[in-house]
Amino acid sequence: MFSPFERMVAFRYLRARKQEGFVSVIATISFIGIMIGVAALIIVMSVMNGFREELITRILGLNGHLNVYSIEGGVNDYGKISKNISKIDGVVFVAPMIEGQVLVTGNGVSIGAVVRGFTPKDFKSKPIISNSIISGDIDNFKDDNIAIGIKMAEKLNVRVGDKITIMTPKGRSTPFGTSPRARQFVISTIFDVGMSEYNSSFIFMPLKFAQKFFQTGNKVNMLEVVTKKPDDMDDIKEDIRFITDVTFNIYDWREANKSYFNALKTERNVMFLILTLIVLVASLNIVSSMFMLVKDKGSDIAIMRTMGASKLSMLKIFILTGASIGFVGTAAGAVLGISFALNIDYIKNWLEGLTGAELFSDEIYFLSKLPAIIDWNEVLLTLVIAFALSFLATLYPAWRASRLDPVEALRYE
Question: What is the domain range of residue 15?
Answer without folding.
Answer: 4-57+260-410
